[in-house]
Amino acid sequence: MSHSQINHTNETSGMTDGDRLKLEEFLKQLVFWWKITLTFIAILIVLGNIWVLIVTWKERTLHQPNKYFIACLAVADLLVGIFLIPPSVLIKKNSDHTSPQSTRISVHLCRFIVWIDAVALATSIYTLTFISLDRYLKISKPLQYKSRMTTSRSLKVILVIVLVAISLATYSATPNSGSYGVVDTVYGTCNFKHDPNKVKTYYVFLAFSAFFIPALIILTLYALIFRVAHKRNKMLSNGGLGQTFSDQNQRSALRQDMKVIRMLLVVVGVFICCWGPWFSWILVWFYSRNIIEWENDSYKNVHRMNIIHLTLRTLPLFNSLCNPFIYACLDQTYREASKHLFRRMTCQPDTRGRQSTIDLHTSRI
C-alpha cells in the first residue's frame, strides 16, 4: 500500500536514462497538479461545511435532532479541509525515506496529523452510518420517531460517535499502532518504524471497521427503506391507509419519502465510490499482491501506479467535499433555509411568504 507512494526514480533500474528523466519530470508534474487539486478540494470543503454550520445555527427550522447529525458530519469534514489536506499540500513527501527531497517533520506533528486524520475520517464515516439509521427510523416509524429521537438523545449519539472516533485516533497515534493515517497522511515524512505485521493488522482492521461493515449496514438500511416505501405505496394504491390519513396527506408523505430515498441512493453511491477503491487497494496489497504488478519497474507501470495511487488517496478526501452538497442541496429543508439566509445576508426581501414557511415546516425529514 504505502510502498507504492510517489517517486520510484531510485528503484527503476530496468529503465533507460531517457525513461528515468521522463518519469522524474512526470512525477513532478503529477504532484504539482495533485496539490493544486487538493487545494481546491480543501477550499470547497471549508466553504461548503462552514455554510452548512451557519445555516444550521441561524435558521430555527433546522434546530431539529436529525439535523444535528448533519452538523456533526459538517464539523468532521471541516477538520479534513483545515487540518488534514494542508499537510499533504505543504509538506514535501517521498517514499524513499533516505531521499534528501523528503521534508522531515517533528514526531509530535506527525502524531497529531495521524490523530486528526483518524478523528475526522472516522467521525465522518460513523456519522454517515448513523444518519442512514436515523432516516430508516424516520420513514419506518414516523410517529414513534418524533417521541424517541429527541435533541438530548441525538446529542448523546453524537457524543458516542466522537468518543469512538477519538479512541480509534488515540490508538492510531501511538508508536506501536502501525498507522500512517487512514489515507497514508504522513507516509514519507515521519520517521515511523512500524512492524510490518502491525501495519497489516491495523489497516485490515481499519478497512472492515471503517468501511466494509459500515457500508454493509448502510446498504441494508437503504434496502429496508426501499421496502418500507414500496409497501406504503402498495397500501396507498389499495386504499389500505385511507382510514388513517386524507388522500392528500398520504400522497404528500409518499412523495417526501421518495425524495429521501433518492437522496440516500446518492449518499450510498458517493460513499462507496469514494471509500471503496482505497480500502480495496489496501486489502489487495496485503492479500493478493500478485493481481497487480507491484514490482514491475517499467516506465509505463510506474507511471500508471502513481496515477492510481494518488487518485485512490484523493477520493476519500473528495467525499468530505460531496457531503455538504448532498445533504444541504438535496434536502429540501436545507435548500429553503439556505435561500432564506442568503436573502437575509444580501438584504433582499424574503419572498417565501406564509405558504413557503408552511412548506418548510412540513418538509422536515
Report the sheet with the most strands, covering strand number, pairing sense and barrel closure. none
What's the average pLDDT? 79
Radius of gyration: 24 Å
Which structural class best describes the helix and strand composition?
A: mainly alpha
Shape: globular
Count of individual helical segments: 10
Strands, count: 0
Series of secondary-structure elements, N-terminal to C-terminal: HHHHHHHHHH
Kindly state the percentage of residues in helix.
Answer: over 70%
Low-confidence stretches: 1-10, 94-102, 353-360
Strand residue content = under 5%
- Give the N-terminus to C-terminus distance in angstroms: 41 Å
Write structural notes for this entry.
By secondary structure, the chain is mostly helical. The protein is built from ten helices and no strands. The model is unreliable at 1-10, 94-102 and 353-360 (pLDDT under 50).
Briefly say what this structure is.
The protein is an all-alpha fold. It is 74% helix and 0% strand.
What descriptive keywords fit this protein?
single chain; 365 residues; 10 helices; globular
Describe the secondary-structure layout:
Blueprint lengths: L16 H42 L6 H26 L16 H34 L1 H7 L2 H22 L23 H43 L8 H41 L11 H31 L2 H14 L7 H10 L3
Helix pairs in contact: 1-2, 1-8, 1-9, 2-3, 2-5, 2-8, 3-4, 3-5, 3-6, 6-7, 7-8
